[in-house]
TrEMBL record:
InterPro entries: PGBD. The chain crosses the membrane at residues 447-467. Keywords: Membrane, Transmembrane, Transmembrane helix. Residues 120-464 form the PiggyBac transposable element-derived protein domain. Residues 1-81 are annotated as: Disordered. This is PiggyBac transposable element-derived protein domain-containing protein. It comes from the Eukaryota. Pfam families: DDE_Tnp_1_7 (PF13843). It comes from Oreochromis niloticus. Residues 24-43 have a biased composition (Acidic residues).
Protein backbone atom coordinates (compact mmCIF):
# COMPACT_ATOMS: atom_id res chain seq x y z
CA UNK A 1 0.00 0.00 0.00
CA UNK A 2 1.41 3.38 -0.99
CA UNK A 3 1.82 6.19 1.45
CA UNK A 4 -1.30 8.30 1.76
CA UNK A 5 -1.48 11.54 -0.23
CA UNK A 6 -1.92 14.66 1.89
CA UNK A 7 -3.42 17.87 0.41
CA UNK A 8 -1.74 21.20 1.00
CA UNK A 9 -3.19 24.36 2.56
CA UNK A 10 -6.49 24.39 4.35
CA UNK A 11 -7.80 21.17 2.72
CA UNK A 12 -6.50 18.26 4.81
CA UNK A 13 -8.47 15.39 3.22
CA UNK A 14 -6.23 12.35 2.59
CA UNK A 15 -6.47 9.74 -0.20
CA UNK A 16 -4.76 6.45 -0.91
CA UNK A 17 -3.47 5.70 -4.39
CA UNK A 18 -6.41 3.34 -5.02
CA UNK A 19 -8.92 5.97 -3.91
CA UNK A 20 -7.40 8.48 -6.33
CA UNK A 21 -7.76 5.97 -9.20
CA UNK A 22 -11.36 5.24 -8.21
CA UNK A 23 -12.17 8.96 -8.21
CA UNK A 24 -10.62 9.51 -11.62
CA UNK A 25 -12.61 6.64 -13.12
CA UNK A 26 -15.93 7.61 -11.54
CA UNK A 27 -18.56 9.26 -13.78
CA UNK A 28 -19.94 11.49 -11.03
CA UNK A 29 -16.64 12.98 -9.91
CA UNK A 30 -16.87 15.94 -7.53
CA UNK A 31 -13.87 17.49 -9.26
CA UNK A 32 -14.96 17.28 -12.88
CA UNK A 33 -16.92 20.52 -13.22
CA UNK A 34 -14.37 22.48 -11.18
CA UNK A 35 -11.44 21.38 -13.36
CA UNK A 36 -13.12 22.61 -16.53
CA UNK A 37 -12.28 26.29 -16.36
CA UNK A 38 -13.98 26.95 -19.71
CA UNK A 39 -17.36 25.61 -18.64
CA UNK A 40 -20.14 27.90 -19.88
CA UNK A 41 -22.30 27.11 -16.89
CA UNK A 42 -19.71 28.73 -14.64
CA UNK A 43 -18.90 31.62 -16.97
CA UNK A 44 -22.40 33.05 -17.09
CA UNK A 45 -22.62 33.65 -13.39
CA UNK A 46 -19.45 35.65 -12.72
CA UNK A 47 -20.45 39.15 -13.81
CA UNK A 48 -17.82 40.86 -11.67
CA UNK A 49 -14.85 38.59 -12.35
CA UNK A 50 -11.83 40.38 -13.74
CA UNK A 51 -10.96 39.81 -17.36
CA UNK A 52 -7.27 39.59 -16.69
CA UNK A 53 -5.32 40.91 -19.67
CA UNK A 54 -8.30 41.71 -21.86
CA UNK A 55 -8.88 44.93 -23.75
CA UNK A 56 -9.10 48.44 -22.42
CA UNK A 57 -12.74 48.69 -23.53
CA UNK A 58 -13.55 45.55 -21.64
CA UNK A 59 -11.62 46.74 -18.60
CA UNK A 60 -13.50 50.03 -18.57
CA UNK A 61 -16.82 48.21 -18.82
CA UNK A 62 -15.81 45.97 -15.95
CA UNK A 63 -14.93 48.92 -13.78
CA UNK A 64 -18.40 50.35 -14.30
CA UNK A 65 -19.84 47.17 -12.82
CA UNK A 66 -17.25 46.68 -10.10
CA UNK A 67 -17.87 44.09 -7.42
CA UNK A 68 -17.45 46.49 -4.52
CA UNK A 69 -18.99 45.87 -1.13
CA UNK A 70 -22.17 47.79 -1.92
CA UNK A 71 -22.56 46.10 -5.28
CA UNK A 72 -22.25 42.55 -3.97
CA UNK A 73 -25.99 41.74 -4.24
CA UNK A 74 -25.63 41.20 -8.00
CA UNK A 75 -23.03 38.49 -7.56
CA UNK A 76 -24.86 36.97 -4.62
CA UNK A 77 -28.12 36.91 -6.51
CA UNK A 78 -26.51 35.18 -9.46
CA UNK A 79 -24.75 32.55 -7.38
CA UNK A 80 -27.80 31.75 -5.27
CA UNK A 81 -30.12 31.46 -8.23
CA UNK A 82 -27.70 29.63 -10.50
CA UNK A 83 -29.08 26.42 -11.84
CA UNK A 84 -26.77 23.63 -10.59
CA UNK A 85 -25.30 20.95 -12.82
CA UNK A 86 -26.74 22.51 -15.96
CA UNK A 87 -25.19 20.89 -19.02
CA UNK A 88 -23.05 23.37 -20.94
CA UNK A 89 -24.13 23.85 -24.53
CA UNK A 90 -21.49 23.30 -27.18
CA UNK A 91 -21.01 26.00 -29.80
CA UNK A 92 -19.25 25.44 -33.13
CA UNK A 93 -16.84 28.25 -33.94
CA UNK A 94 -15.41 28.39 -37.46
CA UNK A 95 -13.23 30.89 -39.32
CA UNK A 96 -15.41 31.69 -42.30
CA UNK A 97 -17.40 34.48 -43.91
CA UNK A 98 -20.24 36.19 -42.06
CA UNK A 99 -23.72 35.86 -43.58
CA UNK A 100 -25.21 39.32 -43.23
CA UNK A 101 -28.85 38.94 -42.13
CA UNK A 102 -31.72 41.13 -43.30
CA UNK A 103 -31.96 43.87 -40.65
CA UNK A 104 -34.31 46.24 -42.48
CA UNK A 105 -36.49 47.63 -39.72
CA UNK A 106 -40.12 46.51 -39.83
CA UNK A 107 -41.32 48.70 -36.97
CA UNK A 108 -42.66 52.23 -37.03
CA UNK A 109 -40.30 54.51 -38.94
CA UNK A 110 -40.15 57.49 -36.60
CA UNK A 111 -37.81 59.40 -38.92
CA UNK A 112 -40.34 59.57 -41.76
CA UNK A 113 -43.48 61.09 -40.20
CA UNK A 114 -45.24 62.94 -42.97
CA UNK A 115 -47.85 64.56 -40.71
CA UNK A 116 -45.54 65.46 -37.82
CA UNK A 117 -46.24 68.81 -36.15
CA UNK A 118 -44.45 70.55 -33.33
CA UNK A 119 -46.27 71.78 -30.26
CA UNK A 120 -45.44 73.95 -27.26
CA UNK A 121 -42.77 72.71 -24.82
CA UNK A 122 -45.40 72.39 -22.08
CA UNK A 123 -47.56 70.12 -24.23
CA UNK A 124 -44.54 67.90 -24.94
CA UNK A 125 -43.87 67.77 -21.19
CA UNK A 126 -47.47 66.69 -20.55
CA UNK A 127 -46.82 63.68 -22.78
CA UNK A 128 -44.71 62.28 -19.93
CA UNK A 129 -46.16 63.93 -16.79
CA UNK A 130 -49.90 63.83 -17.35
CA UNK A 131 -52.76 65.59 -15.54
CA UNK A 132 -53.82 62.28 -13.97
CA UNK A 133 -50.36 61.92 -12.41
CA UNK A 134 -50.59 65.43 -10.93
CA UNK A 135 -54.09 64.82 -9.59
CA UNK A 136 -52.85 61.67 -7.86
CA UNK A 137 -50.05 63.69 -6.23
CA UNK A 138 -52.52 66.34 -5.05
CA UNK A 139 -54.90 63.78 -3.53
CA UNK A 140 -52.24 61.89 -1.59
CA UNK A 141 -50.32 65.01 -0.59
CA UNK A 142 -53.40 66.47 1.10
CA UNK A 143 -54.13 63.11 2.67
CA UNK A 144 -50.58 62.64 3.96
CA UNK A 145 -50.47 66.15 5.45
CA UNK A 146 -53.51 65.27 7.58
CA UNK A 147 -51.95 61.98 8.66
CA UNK A 148 -48.65 63.67 9.53
CA UNK A 149 -49.70 67.04 10.97
CA UNK A 150 -53.42 66.68 11.62
CA UNK A 151 -54.09 69.55 9.22
CA UNK A 152 -54.62 69.54 5.45
CA UNK A 153 -52.01 71.41 3.44
CA UNK A 154 -54.82 72.14 0.97
CA UNK A 155 -52.78 72.11 -2.22
CA UNK A 156 -54.07 71.96 -5.79
CA UNK A 157 -52.94 70.87 -9.25
CA UNK A 158 -52.02 74.46 -10.08
CA UNK A 159 -49.84 74.73 -6.98
CA UNK A 160 -48.10 71.40 -7.63
CA UNK A 161 -47.41 72.59 -11.19
CA UNK A 162 -45.80 75.68 -9.70
CA UNK A 163 -43.60 73.54 -7.43
CA UNK A 164 -42.45 71.54 -10.45
CA UNK A 165 -41.87 74.74 -12.42
CA UNK A 166 -39.78 76.24 -9.61
CA UNK A 167 -37.64 73.12 -9.48
CA UNK A 168 -36.99 73.34 -13.24
CA UNK A 169 -36.03 77.02 -12.88
CA UNK A 170 -33.60 76.07 -10.13
CA UNK A 171 -31.96 73.67 -12.55
CA UNK A 172 -31.29 76.56 -14.95
CA UNK A 173 -30.07 79.07 -12.33
CA UNK A 174 -28.43 76.95 -9.65
CA UNK A 175 -27.58 78.06 -6.14
CA UNK A 176 -26.02 76.06 -3.33
CA UNK A 177 -29.34 75.54 -1.51
CA UNK A 178 -33.10 75.97 -1.93
CA UNK A 179 -33.47 78.66 0.74
CA UNK A 180 -30.99 80.97 -1.02
CA UNK A 181 -33.52 81.75 -3.76
CA UNK A 182 -35.51 83.69 -1.12
CA UNK A 183 -32.62 85.30 0.81
CA UNK A 184 -32.50 89.08 0.55
CA UNK A 185 -28.88 89.25 -0.56
CA UNK A 186 -29.21 86.83 -3.47
CA UNK A 187 -32.98 86.75 -4.01
CA UNK A 188 -33.99 85.38 -7.41
CA UNK A 189 -37.26 86.95 -8.58
CA UNK A 190 -38.49 84.35 -11.12
CA UNK A 191 -38.57 81.83 -8.23
CA UNK A 192 -39.24 83.96 -5.14
CA UNK A 193 -42.09 85.95 -6.72
CA UNK A 194 -44.13 82.82 -7.49
CA UNK A 195 -44.37 81.29 -4.03
CA UNK A 196 -43.04 82.00 -0.57
CA UNK A 197 -40.06 80.00 0.65
CA UNK A 198 -42.01 78.66 3.63
CA UNK A 199 -44.85 77.39 1.44
CA UNK A 200 -42.40 75.77 -0.99
CA UNK A 201 -40.60 73.99 1.87
CA UNK A 202 -43.91 72.91 3.38
CA UNK A 203 -45.05 71.31 0.13
CA UNK A 204 -41.67 69.62 -0.35
CA UNK A 205 -42.03 67.97 3.04
CA UNK A 206 -45.46 66.43 2.34
CA UNK A 207 -45.55 65.61 -1.40
CA UNK A 208 -46.84 62.05 -1.52
CA UNK A 209 -47.97 59.42 -4.04
CA UNK A 210 -49.72 56.70 -2.02
CA UNK A 211 -51.89 56.26 1.06
CA UNK A 212 -49.49 54.97 3.71
CA UNK A 213 -52.27 53.63 5.92
CA UNK A 214 -53.80 51.50 3.16
CA UNK A 215 -50.57 49.87 1.99
CA UNK A 216 -50.47 46.12 2.72
CA UNK A 217 -47.42 44.15 3.79
CA UNK A 218 -47.30 42.63 0.31
CA UNK A 219 -47.12 46.09 -1.25
CA UNK A 220 -44.35 47.13 1.16
CA UNK A 221 -42.14 44.31 -0.10
CA UNK A 222 -41.47 46.68 -2.98
CA UNK A 223 -38.79 49.00 -1.59
CA UNK A 224 -40.07 51.75 -3.88
CA UNK A 225 -43.73 51.36 -2.93
CA UNK A 226 -44.07 55.00 -1.84
CA UNK A 227 -43.04 56.15 -5.32
CA UNK A 228 -44.41 53.23 -7.35
CA UNK A 229 -47.58 54.92 -8.76
CA UNK A 230 -45.52 57.76 -10.23
CA UNK A 231 -42.81 55.43 -11.58
CA UNK A 232 -45.32 53.11 -13.26
CA UNK A 233 -47.24 56.00 -14.79
CA UNK A 234 -44.08 57.66 -16.09
CA UNK A 235 -42.85 54.38 -17.58
CA UNK A 236 -46.18 53.86 -19.37
CA UNK A 237 -45.91 57.36 -20.83
CA UNK A 238 -42.40 56.63 -22.11
CA UNK A 239 -43.57 53.38 -23.73
CA UNK A 240 -46.21 55.24 -25.76
CA UNK A 241 -43.42 56.76 -27.90
CA UNK A 242 -42.32 54.61 -30.84
CA UNK A 243 -38.69 53.50 -30.25
CA UNK A 244 -35.97 53.78 -32.85
CA UNK A 245 -34.40 50.61 -34.23
CA UNK A 246 -31.09 50.95 -32.36
CA UNK A 247 -31.30 50.76 -28.57
CA UNK A 248 -28.48 50.68 -26.02
CA UNK A 249 -28.92 49.13 -22.58
CA UNK A 250 -26.77 50.30 -19.71
CA UNK A 251 -26.92 51.61 -16.16
CA UNK A 252 -27.06 55.13 -14.80
CA UNK A 253 -26.40 56.32 -11.27
CA UNK A 254 -28.69 58.78 -9.47
CA UNK A 255 -26.50 60.62 -6.98
CA UNK A 256 -27.38 59.97 -3.33
CA UNK A 257 -24.95 59.93 -0.41
CA UNK A 258 -27.50 59.77 2.41
CA UNK A 259 -27.55 57.01 4.99
CA UNK A 260 -31.18 56.04 4.41
CA UNK A 261 -32.70 54.06 1.57
CA UNK A 262 -32.01 50.34 1.39
CA UNK A 263 -31.31 50.37 -2.35
CA UNK A 264 -28.27 52.67 -2.38
CA UNK A 265 -25.30 51.23 -4.30
CA UNK A 266 -21.61 51.96 -4.73
CA UNK A 267 -19.94 51.49 -8.12
CA UNK A 268 -16.26 52.22 -8.41
CA UNK A 269 -15.20 54.32 -11.38
CA UNK A 270 -18.50 56.15 -11.87
CA UNK A 271 -18.61 59.99 -11.79
CA UNK A 272 -21.13 59.57 -8.95
CA UNK A 273 -20.19 56.22 -7.36
CA UNK A 274 -22.79 56.48 -4.55
CA UNK A 275 -26.45 56.47 -5.44
CA UNK A 276 -29.38 54.57 -6.90
CA UNK A 277 -28.75 52.26 -9.84
CA UNK A 278 -31.16 52.52 -12.76
CA UNK A 279 -31.11 50.17 -15.75
CA UNK A 280 -32.17 52.05 -18.85
CA UNK A 281 -32.87 51.46 -22.52
CA UNK A 282 -32.11 54.51 -24.69
CA UNK A 283 -31.74 55.38 -28.33
CA UNK A 284 -28.55 57.11 -29.46
CA UNK A 285 -29.98 60.60 -28.73
CA UNK A 286 -30.51 59.72 -25.06
CA UNK A 287 -34.31 59.28 -25.17
CA UNK A 288 -35.29 56.94 -22.32
CA UNK A 289 -37.73 54.29 -23.57
CA UNK A 290 -37.75 51.91 -20.63
CA UNK A 291 -36.12 51.64 -17.21
CA UNK A 292 -35.97 49.62 -14.02
CA UNK A 293 -34.55 50.67 -10.64
CA UNK A 294 -32.34 48.09 -8.99
CA UNK A 295 -33.55 47.30 -5.47
CA UNK A 296 -30.76 45.03 -4.29
CA UNK A 297 -30.92 41.41 -3.27
CA UNK A 298 -34.44 40.41 -2.29
CA UNK A 299 -35.99 43.47 -3.94
CA UNK A 300 -39.34 43.36 -5.69
CA UNK A 301 -37.76 43.43 -9.15
CA UNK A 302 -35.47 40.49 -8.45
CA UNK A 303 -36.07 37.65 -10.85
CA UNK A 304 -38.12 34.87 -9.31
CA UNK A 305 -36.99 31.28 -9.56
CA UNK A 306 -33.75 30.10 -11.06
CA UNK A 307 -31.60 32.51 -12.98
CA UNK A 308 -31.22 31.32 -16.58
CA UNK A 309 -29.01 33.98 -18.18
CA UNK A 310 -27.20 35.55 -15.26
CA UNK A 311 -28.13 38.92 -13.78
CA UNK A 312 -26.98 40.95 -16.79
CA UNK A 313 -28.72 38.71 -19.31
CA UNK A 314 -32.01 38.84 -17.43
CA UNK A 315 -31.83 42.64 -17.35
CA UNK A 316 -31.49 42.80 -21.14
CA UNK A 317 -34.38 40.36 -21.66
CA UNK A 318 -36.58 42.38 -19.30
CA UNK A 319 -35.76 45.64 -21.08
CA UNK A 320 -36.51 44.01 -24.44
CA UNK A 321 -39.91 42.71 -23.29
CA UNK A 322 -41.39 46.12 -24.12
CA UNK A 323 -40.10 45.93 -27.72
CA UNK A 324 -42.16 44.36 -30.47
CA UNK A 325 -40.86 40.99 -31.62
CA UNK A 326 -39.80 40.08 -35.16
CA UNK A 327 -39.32 43.69 -36.29
CA UNK A 328 -35.49 43.55 -36.12
CA UNK A 329 -34.47 45.82 -33.29
CA UNK A 330 -30.71 46.21 -32.81
CA UNK A 331 -29.51 46.07 -29.19
CA UNK A 332 -26.12 47.30 -27.94
CA UNK A 333 -24.70 46.59 -24.48
CA UNK A 334 -21.36 46.21 -22.71
CA UNK A 335 -19.59 43.14 -21.38
CA UNK A 336 -21.57 42.97 -18.13
CA UNK A 337 -24.52 41.66 -20.15
CA UNK A 338 -23.08 39.72 -23.12
CA UNK A 339 -23.24 35.92 -23.36
CA UNK A 340 -24.14 33.36 -26.02
CA UNK A 341 -27.34 32.19 -24.22
CA UNK A 342 -28.55 35.80 -24.17
CA UNK A 343 -27.81 36.19 -27.87
CA UNK A 344 -29.79 33.04 -28.65
CA UNK A 345 -32.70 34.23 -26.51
CA UNK A 346 -32.88 37.54 -28.37
CA UNK A 347 -32.52 35.92 -31.80
CA UNK A 348 -35.61 33.83 -31.04
CA UNK A 349 -37.50 37.14 -30.66
CA UNK A 350 -36.08 38.55 -33.89
CA UNK A 351 -33.77 40.95 -32.01
CA UNK A 352 -30.13 41.36 -33.04
CA UNK A 353 -27.41 42.02 -30.50
CA UNK A 354 -23.94 43.58 -30.42
CA UNK A 355 -21.75 43.96 -27.35
CA UNK A 356 -18.31 43.66 -25.87
CA UNK A 357 -17.71 40.32 -24.18
CA UNK A 358 -15.63 39.16 -21.25
CA UNK A 359 -12.91 36.58 -21.66
CA UNK A 360 -14.73 34.06 -19.48
CA UNK A 361 -18.00 34.28 -21.46
CA UNK A 362 -16.73 33.55 -24.96
CA UNK A 363 -18.19 30.01 -24.91
CA UNK A 364 -14.88 28.37 -25.81
CA UNK A 365 -14.29 30.55 -28.84
CA UNK A 366 -10.52 30.51 -29.42
CA UNK A 367 -9.07 33.70 -30.87
CA UNK A 368 -5.55 35.00 -31.33
CA UNK A 369 -3.90 36.02 -28.06
CA UNK A 370 -3.58 39.68 -27.16
CA UNK A 371 0.19 39.44 -27.42
CA UNK A 372 0.16 37.95 -30.91
CA UNK A 373 -2.47 40.41 -32.10
CA UNK A 374 -0.54 43.40 -30.76
CA UNK A 375 2.50 42.33 -32.82
CA UNK A 376 0.44 42.81 -35.99
CA UNK A 377 -0.25 46.40 -35.05
CA UNK A 378 -3.29 48.57 -34.59
CA UNK A 379 -6.20 47.68 -36.87
CA UNK A 380 -5.43 43.95 -37.02
CA UNK A 381 -8.13 41.51 -35.94
CA UNK A 382 -9.14 37.88 -35.62
CA UNK A 383 -12.64 36.43 -35.75
CA UNK A 384 -14.73 33.27 -35.61
CA UNK A 385 -18.31 32.57 -36.66
CA UNK A 386 -20.70 30.39 -34.64
CA UNK A 387 -22.32 28.11 -37.21
CA UNK A 388 -25.80 27.64 -35.71
CA UNK A 389 -26.56 31.24 -34.73
CA UNK A 390 -24.40 33.11 -37.29
CA UNK A 391 -22.76 35.00 -34.41
CA UNK A 392 -19.40 36.62 -34.96
CA UNK A 393 -16.84 36.84 -32.18
CA UNK A 394 -14.26 39.46 -33.13
CA UNK A 395 -11.07 40.61 -31.43
CA UNK A 396 -9.74 43.87 -32.79
CA UNK A 397 -6.46 45.58 -31.86
CA UNK A 398 -6.78 49.20 -30.88
CA UNK A 399 -4.54 50.59 -28.15
CA UNK A 400 -5.39 47.27 -26.51
CA UNK A 401 -7.43 44.34 -27.74
CA UNK A 402 -11.23 44.72 -27.88
CA UNK A 403 -13.48 41.65 -28.10
CA UNK A 404 -17.09 41.83 -29.30
CA UNK A 405 -19.92 39.51 -30.27
CA UNK A 406 -22.56 40.42 -32.83
CA UNK A 407 -25.37 38.78 -34.76
CA UNK A 408 -26.00 41.34 -37.42
CA UNK A 409 -23.10 43.42 -38.71
CA UNK A 410 -19.49 42.93 -39.76
CA UNK A 411 -17.33 43.69 -42.76
CA UNK A 412 -14.52 41.15 -42.85
CA UNK A 413 -12.22 43.45 -44.84
CA UNK A 414 -12.67 46.18 -42.24
CA UNK A 415 -14.40 45.45 -38.90
CA UNK A 416 -16.99 48.25 -39.03
CA UNK A 417 -18.69 46.59 -36.10
CA UNK A 418 -16.31 48.56 -33.85
CA UNK A 419 -17.41 51.87 -35.33
CA UNK A 420 -21.07 50.85 -35.19
CA UNK A 421 -20.79 49.84 -31.53
CA UNK A 422 -19.09 53.10 -30.53
CA UNK A 423 -21.71 55.15 -32.38
CA UNK A 424 -24.75 53.31 -30.98
CA UNK A 425 -23.76 52.34 -27.44
CA UNK A 426 -23.75 55.76 -25.76
CA UNK A 427 -27.49 56.43 -25.40
CA UNK A 428 -27.60 56.16 -21.60
CA UNK A 429 -24.38 58.19 -21.30
CA UNK A 430 -25.94 60.87 -23.51
CA UNK A 431 -28.98 61.01 -21.22
CA UNK A 432 -26.72 61.47 -18.20
CA UNK A 433 -24.87 64.27 -20.02
CA UNK A 434 -28.19 66.07 -20.66
CA UNK A 435 -29.16 65.64 -17.00
CA UNK A 436 -25.86 67.10 -15.80
CA UNK A 437 -26.57 70.37 -17.60
CA UNK A 438 -30.07 71.17 -16.33
CA UNK A 439 -30.83 69.10 -13.21
CA UNK A 440 -30.90 70.80 -9.81
CA UNK A 441 -29.24 68.68 -7.06
CA UNK A 442 -31.98 69.20 -4.48
CA UNK A 443 -31.41 67.89 -0.96
CA UNK A 444 -34.31 66.34 0.87
CA UNK A 445 -34.74 63.97 3.79
CA UNK A 446 -37.03 61.45 2.11
CA UNK A 447 -34.61 59.47 -0.03
CA UNK A 448 -37.15 58.27 -2.61
CA UNK A 449 -37.92 61.89 -3.51
CA UNK A 450 -34.44 62.06 -5.05
CA UNK A 451 -35.72 59.59 -7.65
CA UNK A 452 -38.89 61.62 -8.18
CA UNK A 453 -36.95 64.77 -9.03
CA UNK A 454 -34.56 62.74 -11.18
CA UNK A 455 -37.33 61.34 -13.36
CA UNK A 456 -39.01 64.74 -13.53
CA UNK A 457 -35.81 66.00 -15.18
CA UNK A 458 -35.79 62.93 -17.45
CA UNK A 459 -39.36 63.84 -18.48
CA UNK A 460 -38.14 67.27 -19.63
CA UNK A 461 -35.29 65.71 -21.62
CA UNK A 462 -37.58 63.13 -23.22
CA UNK A 463 -40.00 65.93 -24.14
CA UNK A 464 -37.17 67.96 -25.69
CA UNK A 465 -35.84 64.98 -27.67
CA UNK A 466 -39.36 64.20 -28.91
CA UNK A 467 -39.71 67.84 -29.98
CA UNK A 468 -36.36 67.60 -31.80
CA UNK A 469 -37.55 64.45 -33.58
CA UNK A 470 -40.66 66.24 -34.82
CA UNK A 471 -38.63 69.25 -35.96
CA UNK A 472 -36.31 66.94 -37.88
CA UNK A 473 -39.27 65.22 -39.55
CA UNK A 474 -40.60 68.59 -40.69
CA UNK A 475 -37.23 69.72 -42.00
CA UNK A 476 -36.99 72.70 -39.62
CA UNK A 477 -33.46 74.19 -39.72
CA UNK A 478 -31.29 73.36 -36.74
CA UNK A 479 -30.82 77.06 -36.01
CA UNK A 480 -34.57 77.35 -35.38
CA UNK A 481 -34.78 74.39 -33.00
CA UNK A 482 -34.89 75.15 -29.28
CA UNK A 483 -31.86 74.20 -27.21
CA UNK A 484 -32.39 72.18 -24.03
CA UNK A 485 -32.01 75.11 -21.62
CA UNK A 486 -34.45 77.26 -23.59
CA UNK A 487 -36.89 74.38 -23.84
CA UNK A 488 -36.73 73.68 -20.09
CA UNK A 489 -37.19 77.38 -19.35
CA UNK A 490 -40.37 77.49 -21.43
CA UNK A 491 -41.70 74.36 -19.71
CA UNK A 492 -41.05 76.01 -16.34
CA UNK A 493 -42.76 79.23 -17.43
CA UNK A 494 -45.75 77.29 -18.69
CA UNK A 495 -46.07 75.42 -15.39
CA UNK A 496 -45.72 78.62 -13.36
CA UNK A 497 -48.14 80.92 -15.12
CA UNK A 498 -49.79 78.81 -17.86
CA UNK A 499 -48.69 81.31 -20.52
CA UNK A 500 -47.51 79.86 -23.81
CA UNK A 501 -45.75 83.05 -24.96
CA UNK A 502 -47.25 82.92 -28.45
CA UNK A 503 -45.11 85.65 -29.94
CA UNK A 504 -41.86 84.17 -28.61
CA UNK A 505 -42.66 80.63 -29.73
CA UNK A 506 -43.66 81.76 -33.22
CA UNK A 507 -40.06 82.85 -33.76
CA UNK A 508 -39.01 79.23 -33.25
CA UNK A 509 -41.51 77.66 -35.68
CA UNK A 510 -43.59 76.14 -32.87
CA UNK A 511 -47.28 75.77 -33.62
CA UNK A 512 -49.82 76.60 -30.92
Amino acid sequence: MAAPFSGQGKHQRKFTAQQVLDLLEADDSDFGPELDSDSDSDELYQPHESDGGESSAEDSDSSNHSSSDEDVPFAETASVQMEPNRAAKTYKWRKKGFELPDVNFLGEQVESYQDATTDTPLVYFWRFVSLDMLENIVEHTNQYSIQKHGKCVDTSVKEIEQVLGLYLWMGLVQMSGVRQYWENEVRYGPVADIMSGNRFSQLLSVIHFVDNEMASEEVKKDRLWKLRPFLDSFRRQCLTIAPRQKQSIDEMMVLYKGKFGGIRQYIKGKPHPWGFKVWGSCCVTGFLHDFDIYQGKGGANEQKGKNQLGVGGDIVVKQCDSLAEKVRFLIFADNFFTSMPLIEKLLAKGIYYTGTVRKNRMSKCTLMTNKDLSKKGRGSYDHRIESNTNTVCLKWQDTKAVTLMSTYYINIDQPNIIKEYNASMGGVDMLEAHLARCKFPIRIRRWYMILFWHFLSVAVINAWLLYQRDCEAQGIPTSKVLKLRKFQGLVAEGLLIKCFYVQRLTNYHICI
